[in-house]
Amino acid sequence: MISEDRKKHIFGVAGFLKDYAEKENMPQEEIEELFVLGLLHDIGYAFLEEKDYCNHEQVGGEILKNQGYKVYYHGVANCPYQSRVLDLLNWADMRVDSSGNIVTLDGRLEELSTRYNVPIKELNSYPIVCELKRKVFK
User: Fold this and answer.
1) How far is CA 64 from CA 9, 19, 29, 61, in A?
2) CA distance linking residue 12 with residue 100, whole number of Å
3) Are 72 and 79 a contacting pair, CB within 8 Å?
4) In angstroms, how far is CA 28 from the centroid of its own chain?
5) For residues 101-128, average pLDDT
6) Which DSSP category does 1 fall into?
7) Cα gap 110→81, rounded to integer Å
8) Residue 90 clears pLDDT 80, i.e. is over it
9) pLDDT band at 40 (very low <50, low <70, confident <90, very high)
10) Rounded to 10 degrees, what is the CA torsion of 20, 97, 62, 39?
11) Residues near 3 by Cβ (< 8 Å), separated by ≥ 6?
12) pLDDT tops 70 at residue 23
């Protein structure tokens, strides 16, 4: 089941992507694609028990892949494919906290570290944020 906070995060990511795409004057079709991708990026949570949430990216990715989406995995270091849309999704996912607020990349890592009681450098998201920083996503 998707929690109320998760819904805030999901809508925050979708809105962040839409706002970014509009500011970049992307074609309407791309704006819509990014918004829908933001809405669906955490779909894996709906099909898992809480104890298995750490697999939401893989489960959700398979669902989206089977439905024909061009971008399906997110939050996976060394993803089997790379694209600008995947980078945008990972960037948005790491810029919106669990309550739907826009935060810095480092702020999001701190939030995840506290939530999961894991040192920042041991988070699955840490290498993704390092890569985003190398690609100049702020």
Assistant:
1) 19, 23, 18, 5
2) 5
3) no
4) 21
5) 94
6) -
7) 27
8) yes
9) very high
10) -50
11) none
12) yes
Q: Between vectors from CA 13 to CA 8 and to CA 16, what angle results, nearest 5°?
A: 120
95-104 pLDDT tens trace: 999 999 999 9
The amino acid sitting at 86 is L
Which tokens belong to 50?
């809480």
Euclidean distance between CA atoms 112 and 109, whole angstroms: 5
CA separation for the pair 53, 57 (Å, rounded): 9
Q: Measure the CA angle with vertex 86, ends 124 and 69; round to 5°.
A: 115
Q: How confident is the model at residue 3 (pLDDT cuts 50, 70, 90)?
A: confident
Average pLDDT, the chain: 91
What span, in angstroms and rounded, lies between the C-alpha atoms of 73 and 64? 8
- Asked if residue 125 lies in contact with residue 131, where contact means CB atoms within 8 angstroms, the answer is no
